[in-house]
Every structure is written in C-alpha cells, then in structure tokens.
Design a protein that fits this description.
Elements (H helix, E strand, L loop, with lengths): L2 H10 L2 H11 L1 H13 L15 H9 L14 H4 L1 E5 L4 E5 L4 H8 L8 H24 L2
Antiparallel strand pairs: 1-2
C-alpha cells in the first residue's frame, strides 16, 4: 500500500457511519447496559430514579422477592423487554415499546432512558471501541 492510498483511505473514512453501524451491531449489548442501569435504580444523568416507590408498591415488590431499596421500573419485565434502540447519523435514541412508557417518563422523567457516564464508558470500552477499531483499520488498510 502506498502512502497516497493510505491518505486517500483515511480521508474517505466516514467515522459517523462506522459508529452508527457499530451501535446497530451492538443493540443487544446496549439494551442490556440500559436494563442493568435501570435495575440499579439510576437515570442517564447519574441521579437515582425518583420518587421512591410507595409503601404499597414496596410491599408488593417485597412479596415478589424484588428489590425495594431503589426504583428499578421492573415488575413483570414488559418495560425492560420493550426497550428499543434507534441509531441515526449523530445520535442514539433509547425508549420502550411497553404501554407504560409514557406514564413512567412523566412520573420519573425522560432521563430514565440513556446511559449515564459510567454505563456509557463501559459500553464504549467493551463494545464500541473493539468493533469500531477493527472497522476503521479495515477501511484504512484496504
């Protein structure tokens, strides 16, 4: 490979496309990071999910063997199973197709969706970086 060819390949690299494709390829992993973050009771801004559960909800969750020390937004699992990820040119949107989504966003804020700094760093390190690096190398060295 010549230097000119290498420079041409670097100039032709569409980094946004590489990242978008990588996110699309790792949707299941991203969804799992979102679910784990919710189960930990954390929002995308790093704050805890609030307001707290009512005493009645805590009793019900306790009876089911579910955590009551934090808001997890997980009861039947439908909300978690409905989580969807859409990657566009410069952004990633996470939401849920569950019928309770709008109500949960109103009660707990839209910040329930999206990865906080810690989750995003782990997702980037473990999922995005290895795949994107491979794609970039392949495109530059072709």
């Amino acid at each position: 490979m010549t230097i000119d060819r290498l420079i041409s390949n670097i100039e032709a690299l569409d980094f946004n496309r590489v990242i978008r494709e990588t996110v699309e390829e790792t949707v299941q992993e991203l969804t799992k990071y979102q679910q784990d973050q919710l189960f930990a009771g954390l929002r995308s801004d790093g704050n805890t999910i609030y307001p707290s559960y009512t005493l009645l909800t805590e009793e019900i969750k306790s009876g089911k063997g579910q955590p009551t020390d934090r808001v997890t937004l997980k009861d039947t699992g439908a909300f978690y199973r409905g989580i969807t990820v859409t990657a566009s040119a410069n952004s990633v949107k996470i939401t849920s197709t569950d019928s309770k989504t709008e109500m949960l966003e109103k009660k707990y804020s839209e910040e329930i969706f999206g990865l906080n700094e810690d989750s995003a760093a782990k997702y980037s390190e473990n999922e995005i970086t290895p795949i994107a690096t491979k794609k970039i190398k392949e495109q530059i060295l072709k």
